[in-house]
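dumping these here so i dont lose them again. two proteins, back to back, each one seq then structure tokens. dont judge the mess
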Amino acid sequence: MSFTIEDMILTAENRYEMKFLAGQNGWANSISWVHLLEDTTIIQNFWGKELAVTTGLGFPQKEDWMNLVRLLNRYHASGLIINVGQYIYDIPEELIAYCNENDLPLLTVPWEVHLSDMIKDFSIRVFLQDNTDEQIVAALIAAIETPDNQKAYRKELLQYFDVDGSFQVLLLTCEGLDSMDTVERKKLSYRIQLYLEDITHNASFFYYNSDFVLIANAVSEEYLYRLVAGAIKRGKRRMPELELCVGIGSKCMDISQLSISYQRAKAAAHMALTHKKQVVKFDDCGLFRLLYMVEDKGILREMETECLAALEEHDRRYNADYVDTLQSYLKHDGSIQAVAAELFTHRNTVLYRIGNIRKILGNELKTPEERLPYQIAFYIRRMHK
């Protein structure tokens, strides 16, 4: 719900005769602050989402302009406004092409505009929107933590969201996110918000409980999936060292059900990190949907141990592969030939192993009921390995 390039255009198109030249895909970039700059020195201290404004005084040549936008892109600026009519009249086509290619909004205002008034105007709007965002985030967290206490959040959110409509939670995370210091995490938050190029006013982005949270209201799942794909693509291009994982919760109706989508997104994000996947949709997780929603993780460990401990002990003692053999046997629904092919083992060896496995387990493994506990045990193992 931040103050965005789109908000700025709506405010400034007439008041400041602002024109949008390039970087259309950055239309929804949010703005953290506004800086007037005539050289590139300060850019290396950008956190992300800064809007740069310049008269062009310090950029006399085309290559100076190209260096400027490259640095703005590298340090995750939200856009560039050029004050034309004194030090620069015509914007180089190469500059426009670069901004389009990198989704960096490029805008102009005429020389007659008083930049100090414009910057003050935008800065006040950013400040006021930040205060509003803090109130919105507090109410959304209340909806997640205390869904039954609707007095704590419903009225507050009514003026910003369709509280009776659909909600869906996405969690964005990466290795070591919760161990970052506040400043480092804030910078990363700003940058990820720029990657979410199509985020609109019916969504909110914030850090909570070791993840970045995106809550979308009354938007299609197709839109959200495109949003995620775009965020990952931009993240790889602009910050290749970041391995971003995304967990997508189920869509729910009414703000009172937000906590359900959040918990499911949390499970999906955990699975994405564990299995090194970029995106995991909770609704596509099959049996894992049940296992990840079990609050008592101890009982899951107990089920795994009860089923597999005896075979693991046998493998350790005799350097055998009975656990892997059982997993393959269950995977192929008892087909000895398929197990032999997967494990590159003679079928007679597989038959011998399965016979011993049955004895160790005290289970013939013939019926679905007999196999099910062991199948679940392997699912549990995959949750944490």
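---- next one ----
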Amino acid sequence: MQITPLEIAETLAMVNKQNLDIRTITLGLNLRGCVDSDVNAVARKVYDRMTSAAESLVPTAQQLEREFGIPIVNKRISVTPIAEVCAAVTAADLTPVAQAMDRAGKEVGVDFVGGFSALVQKGASAADHKLMDSIPHALAVTDNVCSSVNVGSTRAGINMDAVLKMSHVILEAARATADRDCIGAGKLVVFCNAVEDNPFMAGAFHGSGEADEVVNVGVSGPGVVRAVLADLPKNADLTTVAEAIKATAFKITRAGELMAREASQRLGVQKGILDLSLAPTPAPGDSVAEILEAIGVGECGGPGTTAALAMLNDAVKKGGVMASSSVGGLSGAFIPVSEDAGMIRAAEDGALSLEKLEAMTCVCSVGLDMIAIPGDTTPETIFGIIADECAIGMINCKTTAVRLIPAIGKKVGDTLNFGGLLGYAPVMPVNNHAGTVFAHRGGRMPAPLNSLKN
């Protein structure tokens, strides 16, 4: 499908007036050639591989920004899950590999590096345990490295031992960075049904089914959708609203398709996927919460919010798939509290609770994202929150995730301030009636009946 000059002109108007951007160009790299029994040798190989493969990524992205006038907010690298790369490593601590990833990312000028990760949905290897144990220290001594652990899937069920372990890891990551508003936990996400081509952090990693080098693009544009809905009459019916969202998503995705094609050609790597996710920022107007309110919800979190989000997510996907044959990743609408000015306001007003956010995750792209909770929250409570979210993903055959940030030394009503795209997070109350028995039963929650698809 040709991309016309009229489309480009329309897109530039979206950029200038409505905060349209390409949220990320992410270069996925296969690191399986970096295997060694010596962790420092692995670290050296990882650094060399990343710096050589990604040396043109940032200059190419900057050139595309200048030529097409569309901001590319983040340039990122995702790599093979490090637990797999370190399968032969004899050392117990894998932090040197994370430090090499951080140095390489800074050398080539990217904003984040993802893939300090493990996939343990059915069981954990020795290397997986080493990686999970290394996460708190690794995230504390690096700036741009992000970590993810997949603990469940529709086909495998949920590894409840891994869920409990990760509840402790989240707390330890927060404590290790308590002097920096617990940012370690903000760079860590726990998944169910993680996808292999996600360009967004903190969950990006380069899956085993991917080519050696792939460029994946994540588009954005909640401000564009909100502006379109603001121009609709108040008596427009929901079919009209959905059609307006769908048409807007098509235009946004075409801009991403153009950038993905050009980046792939200029970097000389395979074009991967286009992720359609509406990713908000703390900037005024660039908010998914404000889209829901433009649809007609009184304040995000109030009755009707989940229904409005379901319609938004569906319309975005319908519009996007018509604009590109390479839609993948997560695709839909993100609801990170700290990164969305409308979500922050709703949380501070008491309109948006953790329980309502959980309900919203049943119909959105991912899950409970960038949520600050009291620093004295118990591991069993965190376990329960992760388990609940994983169950939603497992039963509904969708990706769900949890990125909780225990605010060490802080209580409900206090804030964590991360700056930049990560914004700030009001500390939200949690239900403390988790008990202790469920978290410590262990074992694997069996896969649901709808996993039997063959």
